[in-house]
């Protein structure tokens, strides 16, 4: 007997028109989430959940990914069994001009790296 086909795993994302500035700011107020955003901004490609450097456990990091996704800051998708993350830079720039790039630049300055990074 053949194995039944399973549907591809998908992740729900909000339309940015449904996301408030308050929701985005609340997502970005946490230093771990800003760290995630900065690492995505500096990455040459989308990053798997387990590839982030963060001072929290993977289960706690999953919570931070969910908050960022629900606020429209990141997009998550599966490639095989790996969940990948990418910034919604263009969409965020259109909805909240300059916000994401300013947060990434300020995070770099605050961390003492001097590297602003571009969102």
Strand arrangement across the biggest beta sheet:
1-3-2
The amount of helix comes to: 40-55%
Helical stretch tally: 5
Give the biggest sheet. Answer: 3 strands, antiparallel
Q: What's the rounded overall pLDDT mean?
A: 90
| Quaternary form | single chain
Question: What is the chain-wise order of helices and strands?
Answer: HHEHEEHH
| Beta-strand content | 5-15%
- Mass-distribution shape: globular
Instruction: Report the uncertain regions.
Output: 114-119
Computed Rg: 15 Å
Q: Classify the secondary structure makeup into a structural class.
A: alpha+beta
> How many DSSP-defined strands?
3
Distance between the termini: 50 Å
Describe the structure.
With 119 residues, this protein is of the alpha+beta class. Helix content is 44%, strand content 12%. Strand 2 (74-79) and strand 3 (82-87) form a beta hairpin. The longest helix has 13 residues, at 58-70. The protein is globular, with a radius of gyration of 15 Å. The termini are far apart.
How would you describe this structure in keywords?
alpha+beta; 12% strand; 44% helix; disordered C terminus; 119 residues; single chain; globular; 3-stranded antiparallel sheet; 5 helices
């Amino acid at each position: 007997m053949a194995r039944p086909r399973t549907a591809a795993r998908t992740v729900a994302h909000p339309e940015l028109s449904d996301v408030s500035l308050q929701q985005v700011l609340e997502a970005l107020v946490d230093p771990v989430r800003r760290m995630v955003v900065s690492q995505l901004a500096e990455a040459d490609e989308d990053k798997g959940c387990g590839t982030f450097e963060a001072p929290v456990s993977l289960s706690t990091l999953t919570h931070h990914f969910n908050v960022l996704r629900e606020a429209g800051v990141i997009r998550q998708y599966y490639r095989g069994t790996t969940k990948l993350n990418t910034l919604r830079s263009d969409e965020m720039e259109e909805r909240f001009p300059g916000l994401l790039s300013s947060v990434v630049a300020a995070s770099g300055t605050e961390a003492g790296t001097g590297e602003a990074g571009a969102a």
